[in-house]
Target: Nitric oxide reductase F protein
Amino acid sequence: MTRITQVWIGLLLLTGATVLLAELAPPRAVLVPGALILAYGKARLILGEYLELRQAPGWFLGARRGLAGVMVLFAVLALAG
Model:
């Protein structure tokens, strides 16, 4: 199995986990961080494999840190409101 196929399967599994999480309708304090963590995982796979940023470690690290910062901001805003 090629690497890109493995990543594609990983994206499908993370998407399925997101759907399952939403269907379970947990409290907001669980739903928001859970959905954001799953979204971060998908974004990391896309950045690293499809955009091939894993071959440029500095850019990949910067993109991951920036994305994590945005996700934390979203979580704080969603849980505060």
Observations:
- The chain has one domain: 3-80.
- The helical segments are 3-24, 28-50, 57-80.
- Residues 57 and 72 are 22 Å apart (CA to CA).
